[in-house]
Amino acid sequence: MKLILILLHIAVCLALILIVLLQRGKGAGMGAAFGGSSQAVFGSAGATTFMHKVTTAAAIVFMLTSLSLSFFFGRGATSSIMEGVTQTEVPAAQTAPAPASAPPPPAGQ
């Protein structure tokens, strides 16, 4: 199951790259952001093309496979580097007796 999901994810990645590269650029949108004018910025850009729909579908499949892979591989076996190590008792720290109290300083100083 994991292998099939990995292969599907790689195929969708490559397809998404190719689909985006095959689309026609919309240079007017970026030019309008830097002071140029374009009617497409505030209005409809027209009907949704077939390539746009395929890109959306590929992006959705990409997100779903990414989430699925993170779910499957995120639950790995928990292990510790301390497995099999025997715990040794540490001796309690020796406390030194409290020092005798020092005489109070003379009153004139």
Give me a quick take on this structure.
The protein has 109 residues and is mostly helical.
Fold topology:
Layout: H1 2-22, H2 27-33, H3 50-74
Helix pairs in contact: 1-3
3D structure, described in words:
The chain has about 110 residues and is mostly helical. The protein has a domain at about 1-25 and about 50-70. The chain contains 3 helices and no strands. The longest helix is centred in the middle third of the chain and has 25 residues, at about 50-75. The radius of gyration is 34 Å and the shape is elongated. The model has no long low-confidence stretch (mean pLDDT about 80).
Structural class from helices and strands? mainly alpha
The major pleated sheet works out as:
none
Q: Give the strand content.
A: under 5%
Termini gap: 85 Å
- Share of helical residues: 40-55%
Which features characterize this protein?
single chain, 109 residues, mainly alpha
